[in-house]
Amino acid sequence: MRILAIDVGTGTQDIMIYDDEKELENSIKLVLPSPHLYISQKIREIDNDIYFDGEIMGGGKLKKTLTEHMDKGYKVVMEELPAKTIRDKISQVEAIGIEIASPDKDYKDYAKITLGDIDITKLSEFLLGYDLEFDFDEIAIAVQDHGYNENMGDRDFRFEKFREKLISPIKPEEFSFKGNTPQYYTRMKAVERQLKKEGIDLKPLLMDTKFASIAGMCHDDIASQLKSFIAIDIGNGHTTAASIEEGKIQGIFEHHTSSLTPESLENYLKRLADGIITNEEVYNDHGHGAHVIKPISKIEKVIVSGPKRELIEKTNLDWHHACPGGDVMMTGTIGLIKTLEAYDV
What is the pTM of this model? Predict the structure, then answer.
């Protein structure tokens, strides 16, 4: 079985092509800039009005880059769907000076940019250039999706869905979708539409980047020997931790990485393990929240991943940098692959 796994993060998009007839370590791997970064660079190189079509994607630096472009005197026009990359409410997009495309207007003189979290055409051209087959039995993609509810803020809604899922201890792989992605996960649904537009008939497995990472950490050689531990992804934007006992998530908490200190992080992780962390304390500290089913027996070790993982080194906790398959950059993609394999069991 050949699997294409893509983990779209804030800094990089990590890609693995896995063939179960070969060793995991011999998989083809790519670490490329995250889509919002190279699209932002493309915008900065254009001295013209710009028209955007395509899909909803991770916004990252796009809002700031578009604002800078408009400050130079250029117009920015977006079709309604990709405009939701900036804000889900179109009125808020228009409020910052972006024009929503009208079928009655002619934009032929505008530079054109297509938004989207994945570019299968570009990837296939790259692989074929190295005489590598672009033929897969399964595709798995991870993006960070807060979800959207017009009556609730992003932080609240994201964690409400976590709580609904974690009503009892479950494996990280269960935080995934294959053909049943809810409509409120707009970024994941956009990925599904992109694949169809590019002629991919496979039903993709979709997962939030944080849970793909947690799943991958659980398949680290050290983690697989432990009964109870903390798995934590310390990302550029968000830090997400799960307390694990006997392979199942017992509790989670999520915060903004920039708001954490080594001392506060250590305190949160201990309280998570003890089952006494509260949603209110994390939310009131401007984090996303916390939810615990029950405490774990002890923190045998903290398994850590993510680009800001050096934060854990400044704590008094016993930590280990996750490197499933021998590669710290492939934690999320391996989480996706192991999740797909769990579907096939």
Answer: 0.94
